[in-house]
């Protein structure tokens, strides 16, 4: 059995001393993207041609190098209102084609847009699409303003923590002049994508939730005064060997419908997490704080996660992602401090998505006036994606699928003829084989294939609506 922290003390100190900046680490990850990599290699000054957070620019891949191009790959820092508020943005656009639809990608907790490096190229083969990947405010290489909560009650604290991220996303949307787009969120990004859909209705064509956190209801997580439940397998994120996960089935290869049938039958039990871990969580001491406090030993501490999480990748890419992860983890704390307000220890939501999901795609876009009735959303597709060996429970997605379908039936009973004609609500759960929580990285080929199908379906709907107008 390999050591829990495989990086030796001497190597850790050397990496700490010689480590690259976060923006250079992002640049190195971007350099791994197919066709963009070849275009960079053919340049006389390779590093100067890699778009990154500290090097906003665009590079075009020609058809000589890129059989699916030409495409423009661009990095931009988008300034928001207020002090020290800006979002790091990476975009890909097809040259010589009209942009019919837009895909926006949000990463998970403590991560960054670079983790999607195996998806950008394949996804942007789809005609008529432009892709934006964002670092959420206070994470990745976006700016890191101080994170503060002013609310006194628990519900208010949760909403304020959510708003800290989704208000920045909405401001970015306005700056980019996007009226409608498809939103993909992974893990915490999926949770926040649902919150965005509910607070800012009328702007989504489709919602894709990749192993979203915080869906199932758990009475212990909702009430801070109660003990925490046992059912979470959150610790698997740090202990499971990804090479084994991507080679074959493990936990979720059972009939997924059995999981939703069993969901909620047994009440949660008290979690055997040590008291010190719960104390650290509730005291808002993030794991990244420990990385920063350990100084020269930080790379060794991070290697305990990266050595397992990336060991299914080629050695060079695994090392590049380790460097990237360490560069993000060691930065000034900001958005990471939102986690204990949103989730209880073990990744159970304090404001569970399952209690709100039925409202997605059913919000009032324009309130009623004296002369006109209220305008409501008439549904849009919601897709849940899980790895077959995901530590996030697929039963939450299946239960959400059922609630969304029931919401559609209810809406159709009370809708006008026009609303019925415009009805577009749908929900489905998709399992990605040989993948865990980071399904987009564990089995990118299957993940990208599913994404291609979802984007093509959305574009057909867009073109159909445009033809009717």
The overall average pLDDT, rounded, is 82
Structural class: alpha/beta
Number of domains: 1
Count the beta strands.
13
CATH topology: Rossmann fold
- Through-space gap between termini: 63 Å
CATH superfamily: Alpha/Beta hydrolase fold, catalytic domain
Architecture in CATH? 3-Layer(aba) Sandwich
Q: Over all CA atoms, what is the radius of gyration?
A: 22 Å
The helix content is: 25-40%
- Main sheet: strands, sense, barrel: 9 strands, mixed
What's the overall geometry? globular
The strand line-up of the biggest sheet is 1-2-3-5-4-6-7-12-13
What's the CATH class, please?
Answer: Alpha Beta
Uncertain regions: pLDDT < 50 for 5+ in a row? Answer: 219-235, 250-257, 259-274
- DSSP strand (E) fraction? 15-25%
Number of helices: 19
Provide structural commentary.
- It contains 19 helices and 13 strands.
- It is of the alpha/beta class and 469 residues long.
- The strands form three sheets. Strands 1-2-3-5-4-6-7-12-13 form a nine-stranded mixed β-sheet, sandwiched between helices.
- It has helices at 9-18, 22-30, 36-41, 120-123, 154-175, 188-199, 219-222, 236-239, 242-245, 256-262, 275-282, 287-293, 298-309, 315-329, 339-342, 394-413, 417-422, 439-442, 444-468; strands at 57-61, 71-79, 86-94, 101-106, 129-134, 181-186, 204-210, 343-344, 348-349, 364-366, 375-376, 381-387, 426-432.
- α2 runs antiparallel to α14 (315-329).
- It has a single domain, classed as Alpha/Beta hydrolase fold, catalytic domain (Rossmann fold, 3-Layer(aba) Sandwich), CATH 3.40.50.1820.
């Amino acid at each position: 059995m390999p050591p829990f922290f495989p990086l030796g003390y001497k190597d850790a100190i050397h990496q700490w001393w010689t480590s690259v900046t976060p923006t250079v680490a992002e640049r190195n990850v971007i350099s791994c993207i197919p066709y963009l990599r070849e275009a960079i290699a053919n340049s006389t000054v390779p590093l100067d041609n890699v778009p990154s957070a500290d090097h906003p620019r665009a590079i075009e891949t020609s058809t000589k190098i890129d059989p699916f191009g030409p495409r423009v790959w661009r990095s931009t820092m988008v300034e928001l209102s207020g002090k020290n508020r800006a979002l790091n943005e990476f975009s890909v656009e097809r040259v010589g084609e009209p942009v019919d639809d837009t895909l926006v990608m949000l990463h998970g907790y403590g991560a960054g847009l670079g983790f999607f490096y195996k998806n950008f190229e394949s996804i942007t083969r789809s005609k008529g699409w432009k892709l934006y990947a964002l670092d959420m405010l206070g994470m990745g290489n976006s700016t890191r303003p101080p994170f503060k909560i002013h609310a006194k009650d628990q519900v208010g604290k949760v909403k304020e923590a959510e708003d800290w991220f989704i208000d920045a996303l909405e401001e970015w949307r306005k700056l980019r002049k996007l009226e409608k787009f498809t939103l993909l969120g992974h893990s915490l990004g999926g949770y926040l994508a649902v919150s965005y859909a509910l607070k800012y209705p009328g702007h989504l064509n489709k919602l894709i939730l990749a192993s979203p956190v915080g869906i199932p209801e758990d009475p212990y997580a909702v009430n801070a005064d109660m003990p925490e439940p046992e059912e979470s397998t959150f610790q698997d994120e740090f202990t499971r060997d990804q090479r084994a996960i991507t080679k074959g089935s493990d936990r979720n290869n059972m009939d997924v419908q059995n999981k939703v049938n069993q969901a909620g039958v047994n009440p949660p039990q008290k979690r055997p997490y040590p008291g010190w871990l719960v104390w650290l969580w509730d005291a808002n001491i993030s794991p990244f704080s420990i990385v920063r406090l350990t100084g020269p030993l930080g790379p060794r501490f991070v290697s305990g996660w990266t050595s397992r999480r990336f060991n299914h990748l080629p050695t060079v890419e695994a090392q590049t992602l380790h460097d990237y992860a360490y560069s993000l983890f060691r930065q000034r704390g900001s958005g990471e401090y939102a986690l204990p307000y949103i989730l209880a220890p073990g990744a159970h939501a304090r404001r569970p998505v399952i209690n709100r999901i039925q409202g997605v795609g059913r919000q009032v876009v324009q309130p009623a006036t004296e002369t006109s009735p209220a305008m409501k959303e008439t549904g849009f597709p919601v897709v849940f994606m899980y790895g077959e060996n995901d530590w996030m429970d697929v039963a939450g997605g299946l239960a959400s699928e059922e609630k969304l379908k029931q919401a559609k039936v209810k809406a159709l009973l009370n809708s006008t003829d026009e609303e019925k004609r415009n009805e577009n609500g749908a929900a489905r759960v998709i399992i990605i084989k040989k993948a865990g929580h980071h399904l987009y990285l564990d089995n990118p080929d299957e993940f990208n294939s599913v994404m291609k199908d979802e984007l093509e379906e959305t574009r057909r709907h867009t073109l159909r609506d445009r033809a009717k107008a």
